[in-house]
Amino acid sequence: MENQKIGIIGGGSGSSKFVSAFANYLPSSEDFSGAQLGFIANVADNFWHKGLFICPDVDITTYALARKLDLSKGWGVQSDTTSTLQAFDTVANVSSWFQLGDQDLALSIKRTEMFQKGWSLSRLTEVILRNLGIAHQIIPATDDFLETFVLTQLGILHLQEFWVKNKGLPTVRNIYYAGIEGALPDPRAIEFCRNKAVICPANPITSILPIIRLKGISKILKKSRVAGISPFVRASAFSGPAPKLMRSLGMETSSFDVAKLYSSFLKVFLVSTEEDPSTISRIRELGIEVVQTNILVRDEADKARISGEIAAVL
User: Fold this and answer.
1) Chain mean position to CA 252
2) What angle (nearest 5°) sits at the alpha carbon of residue 273, between those of residues 272 and 274?
3) Using one digit for the tens of pLDDT, what is the confidence trace for 140-186?
4) 13, 168, 9, 138: which is closest to 75 by C-alpha?
5) Which of 91, 212, 281, 310 has the most CB within a 10 Å radius?
6) Directed axis angle between helix 300-313 and helix 13-25, to 10°?
7) Hey, where are the domains in the chain?
């Protein structure tokens, strides 16, 4: 339907293939021809590093839509070089724990320059997208301060320190979102999710919750037709530290617990054909429709198929 808006809520590497799938195929589907897609990106993993403002999930979404994403890693630019970072490590006599390619650095330098001149993250992201020739909107979930921290036996660690620097090894005691009480969502996030929304497979704790806990997001999703895709094939996550973080919060690592987390607004959940029948029954008992399908996306045929299946249930 022309001019219809669909909110696509996602995180980083776990969502990237679905981001490009929906961008390429959803607006050309019979039911959603010409629809506008708003890609709502998690910002709670943003952080300052080497004097630069780094926005991993926003950048992964950007590279996915630009068809430049390094698919082998799930982040960064394909065939990128690391000459600048290597030179920095030599000059500073350090070993960098957070990897940034030269094109990554170029984007981060420009973003930091604009941010320090008073540009909001949402406005400067619009400019970067236009300069890169990306037609779709990437909407940072909020322009306000919001960062995820993990309480461990080593102390309080930013998510990037926990997952990248410490390789997810510290014992997790709690997780909290600094700034969530006062952060307001980008108005476009509300507008795009008003009628239909898709939750991509992503870490529910560090990618999706920081978005849906923003003021007004859950409320609008309750009134919307929301379809989600499980980030689990049985007990195995697509990527990232989701299992460890979920267990630390007393949750099972399963599609059921993800569905339960979203149960106040989720209408239909796509799960793997390998999903346990008892898990499916438990999800349905929450009042959520379940569709079993191949939720792994490996090539363009898979992207077209999963987009058609999402279009069919929205």
Assistant:
1) 21
2) 85
3) 999 999 999 999 999 999 999 999 999 999 999 999 999 999 999 99
4) 13
5) 310
6) 80
7) 5-313
Nearest one of 262, 199, 274, 268 to 234, comparing CA atoms: 274
What are the structure tokens assigned to 114, written together?
A: 């604009």
CA-based nearest residue to 171, from 144, 193, 153: 153
Neighbours of 60 (CB within 10 A): 26
pLDDT single digits (tens) 159-168: 999 999 999 9
Tell me if 195 sits within 8 A of 152, measured CB to CB.
no
Whether 29 shows a pLDDT value over 90: the answer reads no
Task: Confirm if 59 and 104 have CB atoms less than 8 A apart.
Answer: yes
Superfamily of 5-313 according to CATH: CofD-like domains (3.40.50.10680)
How large is the C-alpha radius of gyration of the chain? 19
Query: What is the rounded average pLDDT of the residues 303-313?
Result: 95
Instruction: Look at residue 289 and tell me whether its pLDDT is greater than 70.
Output: yes
Contact 224, 6 (CB under 8 A): no
| Token output for 75 | 């982040």
| Three-state secondary structure call for residue 113 | helix
